[in-house]
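[SOLVED] Need 3D model of a two-part complex

Original post:
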Amino acid sequence: MLEAAKRSDDVRDAVPEPARPVVVNDDAVRLALAQHLSRISGSRTEIVSFGRKSSGFSWITYAFVARSAAEADRKLILRVGPPNGLFAPYSVLPQVYALQALANSGVPVPALVSSEQDGAEIGFPFFICAHVEGDVPAPWAASELDADHRRAIARQFLEILASLHRIDPGATPFTSLQQGEQRAELRAISGWRASLARPTARYYPLLDWGGRWLHDNCPQPLRRTIVHGDYRIGNFIEHNGRIASILDWELTHLGDPHEDLAWAMMPTFNARSRKLYGVLERAEVVDLYQRASGIAVSDKSLAFYEAHALYQAAAIQMCAVRAFEVDRFNDMRLAVMASQMPSIVRAFERALEAAA
Amino acid sequence: MSASFERLIDGIIDALQSHVVPNSSDDFVRGQVFSAIYALNGLKLAADWKAAPLLEQVRLQDDTFAAVRRLADGLVHPEIPATPRTQGDMPDVAAIEALRDDGDRRLGQLLLWASGEGVRAVNGDVATEIEHLLRRAICDQLKIELATTPKSMLQQIAGGERDGGAAPG
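Solution:
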């Protein structure tokens, strides 16, 4: 393991000490990155304009330029999964599979350059992909943008989701992520329940009860597709009025396509509006999606996955609290997430009532 | 909360807002600063009211336990604690918080029991009534927590938004 991943508690005394934060040293990451790119390209590579980006609550993202004598400068993105991050321990596989399987498909993704699950050179799991020109629209800034512009983007957003759900998952590496006999949808719920049941997490009775309800009442999908897992306004790059790339594939799995649709329509990701991107009514979203995907939307399944979305949001918030308080991941944004829990749990209770 | 403590927090917030935010063009740094301001605002509220809302939650839980005990009379149910669980003054916030957390776990056990097949087969109407009572009470408890939660700053926190300010404490 390189210096970038060195823990401050690597040398242990006889007396156990409290866990100390894992320090992701940007300078060490940069050095290791240069060595990695030099090795895989066969040409000495220099890293310039290296900097951490604000976006994302989970993987640490760096933007940089790779410079070597062998080829022109390349603007690239490095994403690193820290051992004390929101969803640690990290696997690069969902992201790598997505970038590989969806290249040249109807779903725009950045080109994958390199990846390592064991993170031997950088010290953490990581992948490198091409930089994509454009902006990442913030969900809460929707009201500041022109409504016609947002409408055009929202339509593309749905068309791309439909393209994703039309892909035969059997022809992609995602099937290899399938483990055991349990239905994929149930396994995902079980995973969030286990996360919420960790002894260090505060106990919320409605989440315990609601998690069981979701597990017992999860609809059988009419069709199992690739599910992005975090498909929402804010997880794509827009350039000149077009969606140039869909981002953040870390939660991608096989499951019920209603899951992505319900997640995308959460008011949290739409400037607190019930309309997608603040412009498309729910009925219009369903209609556009159905026509583009050929997948019939079930009101009952959509209501179930709207409750599921809030449950998952609550579980993610608790992961953030744990990352900050227990694993001591020093990002103040994670610390304040705990205060969102009461409102999310109440919304979840109401959504369950609607889904029951 | 003492005046000096309040002044200290106000001073920190002011320093961050007046000096750090305007002089940083790095979005990540700005996100960190806005988060710190948010946390300090929350600390002010917690310092004032931490014990009181916790006690209010414990008392609400006790009322719920008493109501469930009455409704569940004659049914085999998870243990319901004797109430009231608080005696006189309880200045130790950690002790009240532990009581609240224990109450949450017991409420969860009762809710799982009331919505389970076993009790519904014995008396479905009463089980449904208990389930609704528990859900309503737990939501009321969450409202108490919301009253001591500072206004959301998710927008500024997540993106280090340039023109945003701190929510008033």
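Edit: Confidence is low (pLDDT under 50) at residues 1-21 of chain A.
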